[in-house]
Amino acid sequence: MKRHKTRMMMLGIFAVVLAIMGWRMAGAEDDGAAGGQQPLAVSADTVALTMKPATMPLSGTVEGLTSSIISSRFSGQVTQVLVEDGRAVRAGQALFVLDMVELRNALRVAQNSVNQMAAKYANDREDYKRCKVLYEKGAYSRQQLDSARTKMLASQADYDSAQANCSSAEKQVAEATVVSPVNGVIANKNLTNGQNVVAGNQVMTVEQIDAVHVVIQVEQRDMAHLKMGDTVAVTVDTYPDKTFSGVVDVISPVAGKENRMFQVKIRVDNPDLLLKPGMFVQVQLDLGEPQPVLTVPQKAVLGEKGVQYVFTVEDGKAKKVRVKAGDILGDRIEITDGAAEGMIILTDNLDKLKDGNIVQIGAEE
């Protein structure tokens, strides 16, 4: 009996404790409902119209207006290398010299052959003249005259061949000194003194860069905006404060097989040789008059799993709105879908915002 009373007392105490806890929790909920959620302070901007330049930014590379491959017309040993990479050269300037000992010996042999053939031809020609006089007097037969004429013609052919061989030998001696075909800058030199070169093998290039080509790839849809002679602005990170002016010089009539894009070359005068072959540059193609587009501050656009969105305000609460962003225009970004002009866009404390949060907008930025 005593044990039963003790158990009943403990159950009663437990019930009282539960009642008190429930009362306190209910009171806390009432306090929360009465006090309300604390609003989050935010700043805002609006969706506004911005004039978007009708230009298309593209990346390109610089190449020499002409790139002349330098090689030797015949094999031999290099005795002098007269230039280095980056050296400016003029058309006709010597680049390197091959060993000319054998070439000069061959030239002397050819010259001696010319002298011998000239003497023989002169002698046979005089013989033919004498035979012709005697034939006209009846002292020589027709056969003897024809034989003398044939001998003279053979000597004349030998003399002509000797002259041709001598001319070739003279040309080889001259070409042992390899010269630049154009004004330009030396590049890709692969040549040293004493090196044996093989006829036709490339040993360097001469890049003509007093004017250069900027090469870009243009999609089919944008080709209608391009025509020969169009003026194009070119910039390069190396010279951030300088803009180079170029003109469309070459438009490929055929798209590339792999990327289906058209190659366009823009000619840029480069008198100070600032633009070097291989440099990466930025090109702005003019596509017409500027157009008004909707924009918001860049920082207002958030992304999550490939989806872009902004926060607006509806009935004092943050509302998440899905948008589609376009090009960046200074510190703002184009909105191509999901927003209307004048819509309020929240711009700070975005990392703390959730859809439905109560917000308090401060001064607009």
TrEMBL record:
Domain named YknX-like C-terminal permuted SH3-like: residues: 293-360
Annotated CzcB-like barrel-sandwich hybrid domain residues: 69-206
Family annotation (InterPro entries): Beta-barrel_RND_2, BSH_CzcB-like, RND_pump_MFP, YknX-like_C
GO CC terms: efflux pump complex
SUPFAM superfamilies: HlyD-like secretion proteins
Domain of life: Bacteria
GO MF annotation, one: efflux transmembrane transporter activity
Domain CusB-like beta-barrel: 212-286
Ranges annotated as spanning the membrane: none
Family, per entry: Belongs to the membrane fusion protein (MFP) (TC 8.A.1) family.
Protein name listed in UniProt: Efflux RND transporter periplasmic adaptor subunit
Organism name: Selenomonas caprae
